[in-house]
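Q: I have 521 residues here and want to know how they pack in 3D. Can you give me a structure?
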Amino acid sequence: MKIEKVVALTTLLFLLPEPLAARPSVWNELNDQVVKFYTEGRYAEATDVAKEALDVAEKTFGPAHPHVATSLNNLASLYKLQGNYGGAEPLYQQALAIYEKALGQDHPYVATSLNKLASLYKSQGKLDQADLFYKKALVIYEKALGQDHPQLATPLNNLAELYRLQGHYVEAEPLYKRALSIIEKALGEDHPYAATSLNNLAELYRAEGHYLEAEPLYRRALAILEKTFGPDHPDAATSVNNLALLYKTEGRYAEAEPLYRQALTISEKALGPDHLDVSRFLNNLAELYRAQKKYDQAEPLYKRSLAIREKVLGSDHPEVAGSLNNLAELYLAQGRYVEAEPLYKRSLAIREKTMGPDHADVAVSLNSLAGLYYAQGKYAEAEPLYRRSLELKRKALGPDHSDVAVSLNNLAGLYQAQDRYAEAEPLYKEAISIQQKAFGPEHFSVATYLNNLALLYKVQGRYSEAGPAYQRALAILEKGLGPDHPDLAILLKNYALFLREVGRGSEAEPLEERAKKIQSR
């Protein structure tokens, strides 16, 4: 499943701050119109006007003028937004070449073009290329502007985001912190860019399970945006959404729901009912309801989110694939397998078409479709999909990424269901090892895989190994997520079943009572 958050530091478009005298009125007006349509979520119209602006720039200034590069970048950015990566790349490359020839390879506009091209490569899953271009942009900015210029915050944040995506959290944190420090020093602690940097650092802490460190950063970001723009601004809605996501992750569903609803209300009022931000907040509220098994409330939200994306982005956009996958996950949870399968397959087809067959998101779709077959007992159909998903993740993200651990865990579960215990055990152990290396030995995901390994031991009668695994998993979850998290209830019930199986029913009873209390909340 995929939960979207709007956390990017940079805006989609950049129009060079050149004197109005150097910008003929027609080109200037067209650029203003592009920005207006983009802001309103009218991307098809923005694209048409951007094409016209490019044509005007080429005829007015000549094909090698920096103004042409500006228009190329704007059109490429709109293509990227709409999932047309193949159309965006040559335009970005052409813009970069114009800037390098006209302004020199060390000009900040060259760095901006490199940054945009890196962002495209990140979206395409070309992470090594993205890393190279982000670093090049950063070097140019530092050389041209100095170590503390606020414009440095953009490549620092973007490089940190790339590292976060790859699970390189140790490398990401100092970059986020440096970006935040630069913004606060140059623009002040209450500048909206400081709010964005705070949010991005909070996202890192949430991914690592450092919830106590994340929450004050989310709250501070929200306070800055509400003070600067007012509580009904779209940026405030995004910040409210991200705080809600933290609460959902912590199992604080009662606190998350009103925040998700607040974000949705603000966005609908400010941007209209068919804006992409509305679709993202609808999706996230639906995800919350699905986590609570409120399926009847989740389904219409998923469907409305999907309809908006298809209307705004077209039927073959990667975000449409995300919506299809999430709706299919809902149907899977309800046992509506016949309805889920075509959605999973369509999601997979879109991702393979738009991102290529080796993208990490393709691996997600393969894993989801395999999960559907697993739930139906179609193990022979599930196994090759799980295996391909695992191979793609290792190739795209590296062998030590947490998403690789997810695929290892799922393949192990498939083997366990077929009594192939000797094949399952090393996969569970590898998954645990990856998570411990990525997040530390007390991260909640480690507890999840320990629980599964304990269950494997239990079904084999290896009770002396199962008991300690359950106990360690419980200790990790209680410490990391608190005594009332829904996931803890599941683990308590599993351990209680184990205790009853080994004749320790008196120890099982209080665990079962705790689980009931947690689940009744």
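Q: Anything worth noting?
A: The domain at 1-145 is CATH 1.25.40.10 (Serine Threonine Protein Phosphatase 5, Tetratricopeptide repeat). The two ends are 25 Å apart (CA to CA).
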